[in-house]
Design goal:
Layout lengths: L3 E6 L3 H16 L3 E2 L8 E6 L4 H17 L4 E6 L5 H7 L5 E3 L7 H4 L11 E4 L6 E4 L20 E5 L1 E2 L10 H5 L3 E2 L2 H13 L4 E5 L7 E3 L16 E3 H9 L6 E5 L8 H9 L6 E3 L7 H6 L6 H14 L4 E8 L6 H14 L3 E6 L17 H23 L6 E9 L5 E4 L5 E5 L10 E10 L2 E6 L1
Parallel strand pairs: 1-2, 1-3, 3-4, 4-5, 8-11, 11-14, 15-16, 16-17, 20-22
Antiparallel strand pairs: 6-7, 9-10, 12-13, 18-19, 18-21, 19-20, 21-22
Length: 458
């Protein structure tokens, strides 16, 4: 096998983070990155199975790669790796089906015999001084502690856990990733320190449900949590607070929160720490109580609206985004109207809309998918119209104000683009000749539209 690799990532921030660990792992074992998937000796597909559309991408990609690169070894990981129907369908074109938490043992699957003497997995050093290596033959190695090869020079995803215990009736994640497992608090802080020292400006803590984070304080954690005791439990607000107290010029985001776990303590921590972006992604999924119950979401529309009110009371400038599924089995027009009503009441900055897609293994697969594709499309378009109005109205609050922006890229017209702390895209005029990538700048906002802001460099 040629020791070159190419990685295809489909899906969420967690998959992006996972792929960065896969890349680091492969390079430790002597693989080199190959920019052409049709020439790489090893191609890894990090898959998403949350929607049929995302799943179908793999059925086109993999045979195409195999046909044009017949000597390639293909590894399929991510959310589809354990699905038996997927394994059966792709058995002739995929060499290895790898659950992501088994990444530390990939060298065995690849039959790599020249295992480095100090091991194959980078873990957070217990003394907090960077990263060290542990024995590659230790099957208990946690893939989350592999030091990632990060593509960005200024923004990094730091996973604090993996898996989900919620079992929403439409969602495949608990079956694809398993139950919730969380990293030690010290390991998370050590990784954050590493990237902050390297000049990173944005630290993004990620998990399927960040605000259900739990860890037990060990002796090694006490350096970063001196007020706690060995054996004491630490939750997400305490972890977030500790990260926000680290020295350096950076800000912190986190994804994703479940409304049933959004605590008063977490809101208070966000309010009092200026390094924590005033932005919350709070998936509602639907605005009707019967549909929410059928989804197994464990909250009502009233509870959700009261939570939003509490958040906005504490942080008037907060940006709130959400996920909504249209056309859940049995959703009537009246029930959908309740979702429209909730969207207007909340006034989201952004909503990621999805048409219901039945997923194998979930409880909802047993329900009759009786909302037609045409009706799902109509409902999605109706919510997009509401979103356009609420987002535009929300963005008016930045007009004629000077705001802080993290510059992320330059478009084809030579204009710099970035995000403010509310995660709104900002176009910067009059700065094309400047080197701004990965830096914080102040921008005077002169135009506010539904999905973006424009302004001049201050």
């Amino acid at each position: 096998m040629r020791k070159t690799y190419y990685i295809i990532t489909i899906g969420c921030q967690m998959n992006v983070s996972d792929s960065e660990r896969v890349a680091a792992y492969l390079e430790f074992y002597g693989f080199k990155y190959e920019p052409n998937r049709y020439q790489a000796g090893l191609v890894v597909l990090n898959t998403c199975g949350i929607r049929q559309k995302a799943e179908d991408r793999n059925y086109g990609l993999i045979p195409d790669i195999r046909k044009k690169n017949p000597r390639v070894k293909i590894v399929l990981t991510g959310c589809l790796a354990l699905r038996q129907d997927v394994q059966k369908r792709l058995a002739d074109v995929v060499d290895i089906f790898l659950p992501i938490n088994n990444l530390p043992n990939l060298y065995r699957e690849l039959k790599i015999k020249d295992v480095p003497s100090r091991g194959g997995v980078a873990r957070a050093a217990r003394d907090g001084e960077g990263l060290s290596l542990v024995d590659a033959k230790d099957d208990k190695n946690d893939y989350l502690d592999i030091s990632p090869k990060v593509n960005s020079k200024f923004s990094v995803y730091i996973p604090i856990g993996n898996g989900c215990d919620n079992f929403c009736s439409y969602c495949v994640v608990p079956y694809a990733r398993g139950r919730e497992i969380y990293r030690s608090a010290g390991a998370v802080i050590v990784e954050a320190i590493k990237f902050i020292k390297a000049g990173y400006k944005e630290i993004v803590l990620v998990a399927q449900n960040v605000n259900s984070y739990k860890s037990i304080i060990s002796k090694q954690d006490l350096k970063y949590f001196p007020k706690l005791k060995i054996g004491e439990e630490i939750d997400f607000p305490k972890l977030l607070s500790a990260a926000a107290k680290l020295s350096g010029d950076f800000w912190i985001r986190f994804f994703t929160s479940h409304p049933k776990n959004m605590s008063d303590e977490l809101i208070a921590v966000m309010k009092r720490n200026k390094k924590i972006c005033q932005q919350i992604h709070l998936p509602v999924q639907a605005g009707d109580d019967q549909i929410l119950a059928a989804m197994n979401r464990k909250y009502t529309a009233k509870h959700y609206l009261e939570l939003v009110k509490k958040i906005r009371s504490a942080m008037p400038e907060v940006g709130i985004s959400s996920d909504i599924i249209v056309g859940f089995p049995g959703e009537t027009k009246k029930q959908f109207a309740n979702t429209e009503k909730l969207m207007r009441q909340v006034g989201y900055d952004m909503v990621y809309l999805a048409r219901f897609s039945s997923r194998p293994g979930t409880a909802a697969v047993k329900l009759k998918d009786n909302v037609t594709p045409q009706e799902k499309q109509r409902r999605e378009e109706a919510l997009n119209k509401i979103l356009s109005k609420t987002a535009c109205a929300d963005n008016q609050r930045f007009l004629n104000k000077e705001i802080r922006v993290l510059v992320e890229e330059k478009n084809k017209r030579g204009e710099w683009l970035g995000k403010n702390e509310q995660f709104v895209t900002v176009k910067i005029f009059g700065a094309a000749d400047k080197k701004l990538l990965g830096s914080f700048v102040n921008v005077k906002i002169t135009e506010a539209k539904d999905f973006g802001l424009s302004g001049k460099l201050s």
